[in-house]
Specification:
Layout lengths: L10 H5 L11 E3 L4 H9 L3 H8 L5 H10 L6 E6 L5 E11 L12 E9 L8 H15 L4 E7 L3 H9 L3 E5 L2 E7 L5 H33 L8
Parallel strand pairs: 4-5
Antiparallel strand pairs: 1-2, 2-3, 3-4, 5-7, 6-7
Helix pairs in contact: 2-4, 5-7
The chain binds coenzyme A.
Length: 226
């Protein structure tokens, strides 16, 4: 169970239509989320960890990666489920353009995106939504090239990349994909702001419910949950 049903629209049944995918509130993550990010990444194990990081990182290396994330330079997005569990994280890292390397852009900076979704929440459009959000943020930050580095065998990510219109270069089992983006416009700025506002309300609601549940568990006579 993904526990992501907060924004489901019940009208589809009445209209006799296929059930639509739930709306995914994508929230920008900050320092206060770092501990939950670490918990999320430690749950990405085995082959999935290889697919996410490009190599087999130990738990210690994962912790180092999470601790090194610079929230002032990069942007990190997350999706929380109903019980305030971080089910997905997307890391949008900005970097200076390297001469001779990033010759597909005239801009000073490029961005690279990495994403992970917990197994229990896959196939609901969350990975695609995080990617979509990263692309909008790039446009609004005057970055017109969004890179993704993944293994060619990563069928799901390849599918998402192709769906987004990314140019894909395969090389010795690895794939570098990049997406060229248009400039910001009022619609892209509004879209980012609205997504963040919706996600902020959702975040506050879930955090408060979680806090209330913890207080409830602390009442005399109640056994705390393990
Ligand atoms: C890749 C990943 C982020 C996708 O997350 P997700 O939330 O399940 O993705 P979505 O639900 O948005 O999209 C999955 C798409 O892949 C398609 N898909 C599923 N299995 C597939 C397969 N074997 N081959 C091709 N496409 C497949 C789905 O149909 C869906 O496409 P659609 O939206 O057009 O129907 C997730 O699987 C993951 O965390 N993997 C481990 C880490 C990783 O690989 N990260 C990417 C490298 S940075």
């Amino acid at each position: 169970m993904s526990g992501l049903n907060l924004f489901r629209n019940p009208l589809h049944k009445w209209l006799g239509r296929a059930e639509p995918r739930p709306t995914v509130p994508v929230k920008e993550l900050r320092e206060r989320d770092r501990r939950r990010m670490l918990r999320h990444f430690l749950q990405i194990e085995g082959r999935d960890r290889l697919l996410r990081f490009g190599s087999h990182l130990s738990d210690e290396q994962v912790a180092k990666y999470v601790n090194a994330i610079d929230f002032h330079r990069d942007m990190v997005f997350g999706v929380y489920n109903r019980v305030f569990r971080l089910v997905a994280v997307g890391h949008l890292a900005f970097a200076e353009k390297q001469p001779h390397k990033n010759d597909v852009t005239e801009k000073d900076r490029v961005a690279e995106f990495g994403v992970s979704v917990l197994k229990s929440a896959r196939g609901l459009g969350i990975g695609s939504k995080l990617f979509e959000r990263a692309a909008i943020v790039c446009r609004n930050h005057d970055v017109d090239t969004l890179y993704m580095h993944c293994l060619s065998s990563n069928q799901i990510m390849m599918h998402i990349a192709k769906k987004a219109g990314m140019e894909i270069h395969r090389d010795y089992g690895e794939a570098d994909a990049y997406l060229k983006l248009g400039p910001a416009n009022p619609a892209s700025v509004l879209q980012e702001a609205m997504q963040e506002q919706l996600a902020t309300i959702d975040y506050a609601l879930k955090a408060n419910v979680r806090r209330a549940a913890k207080l409830w568990d602390m009442l005399p006579g109640r056994k705390p949950k393990q």
